[in-house]
Design goal:
The complex is a heterodimer.
Chain A (H helix, E strand, L loop, with lengths): L13 H9 L8 H23 L1 H15 L7 H7 L6 H10 L3 H23 L1 H11 L13
Chain B lengths: L8 E2 L6 H5 L3 E2 L3 E6 L5 H12 L6 E5 L5 H8 L14 E5 L1 H23 L3 E5 L2 H8 L4 H18 L3 E7 L7 H4 L4 E10 L2 E11 L9 E6 L2 E5 L18 E2 L4 H6 L4 E2 L3 E6 L5 H13 L5 E5 L4 H6 L4 H9 L3 E5 L7 H15 L3 E5 L1 H7 L2 H4 L2 H14 L3 E7 L20 E10 L2 E11 L9 E5 L5 E6 L3 E2 L7 E2 L3 H5 L7
Parallel strand pairs in B: 3-7, 3-8, 4-5, 4-6, 6-7, 14-18, 14-19, 15-16, 15-17, 17-18
Antiparallel strand pairs in B: 1-2, 8-9, 9-10, 10-11, 12-13, 19-20, 20-21, 21-22, 23-24
Helix pairs in contact in B: 4-6, 5-6, 12-15
Classes of the chains: A mainly alpha, B alpha/beta.
C-alpha cells in the first residue's frame, strides 16, 4: 500500500479521523444517534483490531482510553468504572453513558475518546498499522488527515 | 514419471537456513520450533510466515498464551521482513486466549480448525503451544489428551495442505516424545553462554524427507531478523578445483618468488609466521596488491586494525584506495561481539563472490582468535581447517599471517599446531648481527614443489616494501637468533643496506 502513509514526519490528525469515524453513516442530530454511532465504531474497530491485538488487548486499550478521556470529560466516569468489570460489555456501557449526556457533550466526549484510543494504539503498534486497519474498517473516511505543522 | 511424491521445499526467508534444512521447509510439513525464552522463536515464526505469505498462499498466525499480541506486534514490526500491507489480505492474526482459558486443548483445536476452514491458509503458525500443554498435562488424562490433540492437529492441517509451525518453550534438549514424535521437523534455538559471551545457535534435530546439515549453527538476530551461518558449507557445484603447480602467483617480492620455486601455486594456503613487527602485514599487502594490479582481485580480512588504520599505515595507501574504489580489493573488518568462524567464513565467501576475488589475506589469525567467542576458540584448529579449506576450494589463494614470538631454543612454525593445515609456510625472524637487529626469512614448506632452503636477510625499505637480499653466508647458528660469523669475505659485502 503506498501513498497516504509515505509522509510520516507529520502525525495523523486523530481528532479529525475520530470525528469522521463517528459521522461515517450517522448524522449529527441527537445524543441517541451519537451513542449508536460510537457503539458502531467500537464494534468495527474490534472486528479489525482484535485479531491483531487480541480481545483482551482491545479491551485494555479501550479501558485506558476511557481513563484518559475522563480527565477532560468527567461525565464518562461511570464508563471507566464499568470497564473495571471484565464481564461488562463495553459497547453496551458506552451506549448507556453517552445516552445520559446532552448532544453536544456526547459528541465531544465520543470524539475525544476515539482520538485518545487512536493515539494510544498508535503509540504501541505504530501509526502505519493503525491507519491500515482504519482504512479497512472505515473505507469511506479519509485517514490521511494530518495535524497542522507548527 | 517418478513414483515418488514430489515434496516441494518452501523458502524459509532466513539467510543460511535453507541450506541447513537441506533445501527449505517441506511443503505441508509440521515443524516444531523450540527453545528457551528469548531465543528467537516468535521472530523466526514471523520471518517464515512473511517470507511465504501471499494472496495465493495465505497465512494464519495463532497466539495462545504467552507474549500479549499487542506486544508481539509492536516488537516484530521493527524487523525489515514485517510487511504491514500483507496483514488482512495475506495474513490473519488470531488470538486463542479465551478458548485456551475456557476449554483447553479441545476448544483451541476446534477454533483452529474453524479458522483454517474459513481462511484456507497455506501457512499456519501457532505461538505457543507449550503454555497450553502445561495445563493439560496436569489432568489425569493429560498425556493422552495431548497426544490426541497433536495427532488431530497434524492430520487436519496436512489435509488442508497447510505448512505448519508450532512454537514452544522448552529447556535445552528437553525431550517430549508425545509431541516430538508427531512432528515432521524439530528446530532448536539456543543461547549458549560461555563466560561473558552469548552465542545464538540453531540445530535441526529432525526434518523428514530431507538431509539437514547436522550440528549447531551460529545465528544472529539483526534488524533484518534471523540469519544463520551454516557450520559446513556445501561444496561448490561443478568439478573440484584442481591446483596445478605450474600456475604460480607472485608474492609481490621477486626474490621470494624465486625462493618459492617460482611463486605460490594457485589455490594454496600460505602461512606467514613471525614475531611482532617483522613485516607480515607488509608482505601480505604486497601479495594482495601484486594480484589486484594484474587482474586478480583480492579480499583482505582485518582483525587487528580498523580498515581506516590499516589503509592509513599501508605503504601504498593511494594505490590501495584506488583499487578498493574500483572493487578490485575489498577490506573486511569483521568484529561483531562473539564472532564465530562460520560468520567469518560467510563474510569472506560473500566478498570473494562479490568481486570475483582470486586472492585472500587473513591478517591475522592471532587477531581472529581473539575476536572469536570463547566457545569457538576451543575448536580453533578445526575451525581454521574448515575455513581455509572452503576458501581454497573456491580457487582462492589464501595468505594468513600469524604472530609467532621468536624462540631460539626450539623451532616452531605456528601456534596451536596449525602449520600442517597450510600448503606453504614462510617464516620471518629477528637476528642480531654486528650489534644490530636484522630480519631474515625462509621458505619452510611448499607442498609438492621444490623451494629454497636458504635463510635470507630482508629489509623494509624507505617505501615500506619488503626487499629480500642474498643468503646470509658466513654465519652459523642463524636460527639461534645470535649467529656467529665464520671467515667468509663475501659475508659482509653481500648484506643489504640497513634502512629500518
Amino acid at each position: 500500500m503506498v501513498g497516504p502513509f509515505e509522509d510520516d514526519r507529520v502525525s495523523p490528525n486523530f481528532s479529525e479521523i475520530a470525528r469522521q469515524m463517528l459521522h461515517d453513516s450517522i448524522g449529527e442530530v441527537a445524543a441517541t444517534e451519537c451513542a449508536a454511532s460510537a457503539a458502531s465504531v467500537l464494534e468495527r474497530l474490534q472486528t479489525r483490531l482484535a485479531p491483531l491485538v487480541g480481545a483482551a488487548g482491545m479491551r485494555a486499550l479501550f479501558a485506558r482510553s476511557v481513563k484518559l478521556t475522563t480527565t477532560e470529560f468527567a461525565a464518562l466516569a461511570p464508563l471507566r468504572i464499568a470497564m473495571l468489570d471484565e464481564k461488562v460489555n463495553a459497547g453496551d456501557s458506552l451506549t448507556d453513558v453517552l445516552n445520559s449526556l446532552d448532544a453536544a457533550t456526547a459528541w465531544a466526549a465520543a470524539t475525544a475518546l476515539y482520538t485518545n484510543f487512536l493515539a494510544l494504539t498508535s503509540s504501541l503498534i505504530g501509526e502505519h498499522l493503525v491507519l491500515l486497519v482504519l482504512q479497512r474498517a472505515f473505507p469511506k473516511i479519509d485517514v490521511t488527515a494530518k495535524q497542522e505543522s507548527e | 514419471m517418478s513414483r515418488k511424491v514430489p515434496i516441494r521445499a518452501l523458502p524459509s526467508g532466513v539467510p543460511g537456513f535453507d541450506e541447513v534444512l537441506g533445501g527449505g521447509i517441506p511443503e505441508f510439513s509440521l515443524t516444531l520450533v523450540v527453545g528457551g525464552p528469548g531465543c528467537g522463536k516468535t521472530t523466526l515464526g514471523h520471518q517464515l510466515m512473511f517470507a511465504n505469505a501471499s494472496p495465493e498462499r495465505r497465512a494464519l498466525f495463532f497466539t495462545i498464551i504467552g507474549e500479549p499480541p499487542i506486544k508481539m506486534l509492536r516488537y516484530q514490526q521493527q524487523f525489515s521482513f514485517f510487511d504491514a500491507a500483507k496483514i488482512d489480505d495475506s495474513i490473519h492474526f488470531v488470538h486463542l486466549g479465551q478458548e485456551a482459558s475456557d476449554g483447553g486443548l479441545h476448544n483451541v483445536l476446534e477454533r483452529i480448525i474453524q479458522e483454517v476452514d474459513a481462511f484456507d491458509p497455506g501457512i499456519v503458525v501457532v505461538d505457543s503451544f507449550r503454555s497450553m500443554m502445561r495445563r493439560t498435562l496436569q489432568g489425569p488424562t493429560g498425556e493422552m489428551d495431548l497426544q490426541d490433540f497433536m495427532q488431530r492437529l497434524a492430520l487436519h492441517l496436512t489435509s488442508y495442505q497447510a505448512t505448519t509451525f508450532l512454537l514452544g518453550e522448552y529447556g535445552d534438549d528437553e525431550y517430549d516424545s508425545s509431541v516430538f514424535t508427531v512432528a515432521d521437523g524439530i528446530v532448536w534455538l539456543y543461547q549458549a553462554v560461555d563466560r561473558n559471551s552469548v552465542v545464538r545457535k540453531v540445530r535441526v534435530q529432525k526434518m523428514r524427507g530431507q538431509a539437514q546439515i547436522p550440528g549447531l549453527h551460529t545465528m544472529r538476530i539483526t534488524d533484518d531478523g534471523l540469519r544463520l551461518f551454516p557450520r559446513i558449507l556445501k561444496p561448490e557445484l561443478g568439478a573440484p578445483y584442481h591446483r596445478p603447480l605450474d600456475q604460480r602467483l607472485t608474492t609481490g617480492v621477486s626474490a621470494l618468488d624465486a625462493m618459492s620455486g617460482g611463486g605460490i601455486p594457485r589455490g594454496y594456503a600460505v602461512l606467514v609466521a613471525g614475531p611482532s613487527g617483522s613485516g607480515k602485514t607488509i608482505l601480505s599487502n604486497q601479495f594482495i596488491l601484486a594480484g589486484a594490479t594484474n587482474g586478480e582481485p583480492g579480499v583482505i580480512a582485518v582483525f587487528e586494525k580498523r580498515p581506516n588504520d590499516y589503509l592509513a599505515t599501508s605503504a601504498r595507501a593511494g594505490v590501495l584506495d584506488t583499487l578498493i574504489s574500483e572493487k578490485k580489493i575489498e577490506v573486511l573488518y569483521i568484529r561483531p561481539l562473539d564472532l564465530s568462524i562460520d560468520e567469518t567464513l560467510t563474510a569472506l565467501r560473500e566478498a570473494v563472490i562479490r568481486i570475483g576475488a582470486k586472492r585472500a589475506v587473513i591478517d591475522s589469525l592471532s587477531g581472529l582468535e581473539l575476536a572469536l567467542a570463547p566457545t569457538f576458540r576451543q575448536d580453533f584448529r578445526e575451525s581454521l581447517y574448515r575455513m581455509v579449506g572452503a576458501l581454497t576450494e573456491m580457487g582462492v589463494t589464501v595468505m594468513s599471517t600469524v604472530e609467532m614470538p621468536d624462540k631460539y631454543a626450539s623451532l616452531e612454525f605456528s601456534p596451536h599446531g596449525i602449520a600442517f593445515l597450510n600448503d606453504a609456510i614462510i617464516i620471518q625472524r629477528y637476528l642480531e648481527i654486528d650489534g644490530a637487529i636484522a630480519r631474515a626469512l625462509s621458505v619452510i614448506k611448499m607442498r609438492g614443489s621444490d623451494h629454497s632452503k636458504e635463510v635470507r636477510e630482508y629489509v623494509i625499505n624507505s617505501s615500506g616494501q619488503i626487499v629480500v637480499g642474498k643468503v646470509l653466508n658466513g654465519y652459523e647458528g642463524l636460527l639461534t637468533g645470535a649467529p656467529s660469523s665464520v671467515e667468509d669475505p663475501n659475508a659482509v659485502a653481500g648484506r643489504l643496506p640497513q634502512v629500518r
